[in-house]
Amino acid sequence: MSKHRIFTTAFSKVYPLYVQKAEHKHRTPDEVDQLIRWLTGYSQAELETQIRQQTDLKTFFAQAPAIHPDAALIKGVVCGIRVEEVQDPLMQKIRQLDKLIDELAKGQPMEKILRR
User: Fold this and answer.
1) Which InterPro entries match (predicted)?
2) 2 CB-near residues (< 8 Å, 6+ apart)
């Protein structure tokens, strides 16, 4: 696995950026949390613990209770990179979360974002 700097970045550092991006487009922190919980399988309490403990992204995803089986349906471009073509499994999970937040910020309905 390659050593991307993002892997050692604390989830607590990127989380407020996700919330800020969502709120800028009139979405809520609760919706951000819902997306994160859907993707990772964390409960709200577990998610808050990960943030409080300043867990790095590598550990955050490694400890995720269950990556949602529909995560493979997350497709599209984030930062000029096709999410479904990312080779590194950890980087792909990070990009999938980025894509979910992008869709939220673009005003897509939650049902569509959650691939229902």
Assistant:
1) SP1917_dom_sf, UCP033199
2) 88, 91
Q: Cβ distance 36 to 46 under 8 Å? A: no
Tell me what percent of the residues of the chain surpass a pLDDT of 70: 98
For 31, the domain range is 5-110
Exposure of 110 by Cβ count < 10 A (0-12 exposed, 13-18 middle, 19+ buried)? middle
Measured CA to CA, the distance from residue 97 to residue 92 in angstroms comes to 9
* Non-local CB neighbours of 91 within 8 Å, separated by 6+ positions: 2, 4, 6, 7
> Residue 116 domain-assigned?
no
Global confidence as pTM = 0.93
Both tokens assigned to 66: 């269950």
The answer on pLDDT for 55 being more than 90 is yes
